[in-house]
Design brief:
Blueprint (H helix, E strand, L loop, with lengths): L8 H14 L24 E5 L4 H12 L6 E6 L7 E4 L2 E4 L1 E2 L10 E4 L3 H13 L3 E4 L33 E4 L3 H17 L1 E10 L6 H15 L18 E2 L11 H13 L6 E8 L6 E9 L5 H9 L4 E3 L11 H4 L5 E8 L8 E8 L3 H14 L2
Helix pairs in contact: 1-5, 2-9, 4-9
Bound molecules: NADP nicotinamide-adenine-dinucleotide phosphate (NAP).
C-alpha cells in the first residue's frame, strides 16, 4: 500500500542521496519564515481532483494542499490504469487511486493536472465541459491566447473573473518552472524600471526531468565513485559529475524548447511583446531546485541598493546577498522551500550608468515552479 507521508518521493530520493554523501538530511521548513497549518476537509468547500497524483508534481500537490490548509469537501486521486487501486493516505484518510476517465470530472470544481501534455490536451477540455476549472501544469495550453498563464504574485489580473461556484468550467495554465522562478525575481524590478532585455542562463536540476532522472543521478553518482561505467537510460550521456545542454528538443532556430518557453511565456505573462529575451538552459547534476543567472537591461535607471530593497519587499522572494561572507542562494538551500531566493545583485559593468543589473536566482521548481504556483492559482478561484 503506497502511503503519502510528510516526505514526497522527491524528498526521499534527495534525502537518500544526501545521506549517502553527507550523512542524514534534516527535515527543512517550507519557507524561510513561515508557520504550517492543516486539516481542511469542509462540507461547503469545493470538490477537487488531482490528475497525475502518483507522479512527482502530483505528490507535491498533496503536500502543498495540506501545508496551505486548502479547503475541500472531497478530493479525487486520479492517475493511469497502472496505478488504479493503489492507496494514498492524505490528511489521515485513506483514498483509492482511480483511473482517469472522462467521467472522472463529474461534480469536480477544481482539477489540478500534472500528467503530461497529451493527457492535458485530451482530458482538459473534457473536464472544462463538465464545469471543472482546470489548473494545468503542462505546456499544452500555455500559449493559447484564450488561456490565462498565471504567476499569482506577477499577473493575477489575467484570471480575473474566473471563480468556482459560477457553474462554468475554465482552463488556467501554470507557466514553465524556469519562467516562474526567473519572473518571481525579475518582475518587481521590471515594474520599477521596465526591463527592455533579459538574458537568462539556467542551471536546472534532475527533478525537473522527473523521478526517473533523479534516480539515475543517484545511481550514476554511486557508479562513478565506484569506478563503474554510468547507466544512461534517461539522458543519453553521463549526468553525474557533468553538465549538458537541456534535454528538450532543439528547434530549427538553434534554441531548445525550454529556452523558447522562457522567451514566449515571459512576453505573455508581462503582456509585452517588445521585451527582448534570450536564454541558454543547462542541466546540472543537482537533485532538486533550479538556479538561474539573469542579466537585465532597463529603460530607467535602477541602482543596486534600490534593487535590493525592491526584492526584499517582493512577495515570495527572499534576498540572500552577503558579499563579505561570499554567501548567496544555492539550490540546496531553497529545496522544499516556497520562496525564491535572489542574490549576486550587482550593477552590470558592461552597461551605461545604472541601466543594467545581474542577479542570481534559485527556486524549488517542483514547489514554486509547479505545485505551489498551481495551488496559489486555485486559492484565487475561491
Ligand atoms: N517535475 C517538474 O519539476 C515539473 C515542473 C513543472 C511542470 N511539470 C509538468 O508536470 C507534469 C508531470 O510531471 P512529473 O514530473 O510529475 O511526472 P511523473 O513523475 O512522471 O508523473 C506523471 C503522472 O502522470 C500520470 N499519468 C501518466 N499517464 C497517464 C494516463 N494515461 N492517464 C492518467 N494519468 C497518467 C502518472 O500516473 P501513473 O503513476 O499511473 O503512471 C503520474 O501520476 C508534466 O507535464 C511536466 O511537464 C513538471
Amino acid at each position: 500500500m503506497a502511503a503519502f507521508t510528510r516526505l514526497t518521493y522527491h524528498q526521499r530520493v534527495h534525502n537518500n542521496l544526501l545521506s549517502s554523501l553527507t550523512g542524514p538530511a534534516a527535515a527543512r521548513p517550507r519557507t524561510f519564515a513561515t508557520t504550517r497549518i492543516r486539516m481542511s476537509l469542509q462540507e461547503s468547500a469545493p470538490s477537487l481532483a488531482v490528475v497525475g497524483v502518483t507522479g512527482a508534481v502530483g505528490q507535491e500537490f498533496l503536500s502543498v494542499l495540506s501545508d496551505r490548509d486548502f479547503p475541500y469537501c472531497s478530493i479525487k486521486m486520479l492517475a493511469s490504469k497502472r496505478s488504479a487501486g493503489k492507496h494514498i493516505t492524505f490528511q489521515g484518510r485513506d483514498y483509492v487511486v482511480e483511473e482517469l476517465t472522462p467521467d472522472a470530472f463529474q461534480g469536480v470544481d477544481i482539477a489540478l493536472f500534472s500528467a503530461g501534455g497529451s493527457i492535458s490536451k485530451e482530458f482538459g477540455p473534457i473536464a472544462v465541459g463538465k464545469g471543472s476549472i482546470v489548473v494545468d501544469n503542462s505546456s499544452a495550453f500555455r500559449m493559447d491566447e484564450n488561456v490565462p498563464l498565471v504567476i499569482p504574485e506577477v499577473n493575477p489580473e489575467a484570471m480575473s473573473g474566473i471563480k468556482v461556484g459560477k457553474g462554468k468550467g475554465a482552463l488556467i495554465a501554470n507557466p514553465n518552472c524556469s519562467t516562474i522562478i526567473c519572473l518571481m525575481a525579475a518582475t518587481p524590478l521590471h515594474q520599477h524600471a521596465k526591463v527592455v532585455r533579459m538574458v537568462v542562463s539556467t542551471y536546472q536540476a534532475a527533478s525537473g526531468a522527473g523521478a526517473a532522472a533523479m534516480e539515475e543521478l543517484v545511481l550514476q553518482t554511486r557508479e562513478v565513485l565506484e569506478g563503474k561505467p554510468p547507466t544512461c537510460n534517461i539522458f543519453n550521456q553521463q549526468y553525474a559529475f557533468n553538465l549538458f545542454s537541456h534535454n528538450a528538443p532543439v528547434l530549427s532556430n538553434g534554441y531548445n524548447e525550454e529556452e523558447m518557453k522562457l522567451v514566449n511565456e515571459t512576453r505573455k505573462i508581462w503582456n509585452n511583446n517588445d521585451v527582448k529575451v534570450t536564454a541558454t538552459c543547462i542541466r546540472v547534476p543537482v537533485m532538486r531546485a533550479h538556479a538561474e543567472s539573469v542579466n537585465l537591461q532597463f529603460e530607467k535607471p535602477l541602482d543596486e541598493e534600490r534593487a535590493k530593497d525592491i526584492l526584499k519587499n517582493a512577495p515570495g522572494v527572499v534576498v540572500i546577498d552577503d558579499r563579505a561572507a561570499n554567501r548567496f542562494p544555492t539550490p540546496l538551500e531553497v529545496s522544499n522551500k516556497d520562496d525564491v531566493a535572489v542574490g549576486r545583485i550587482r550593477r552590470d559593468v558592461s552597461q551605461d550608468g545604472d541601466t543594467g543589473l545581474d542577479i542570481f536566482v534559485c527556486g524549488d521548481q517542483i514547489r514554486k515552479g509547479a505545485a505551489l504556483n498551481a495551488v496559489q492559482i486555485a486559492e484565487m478561484l475561491l
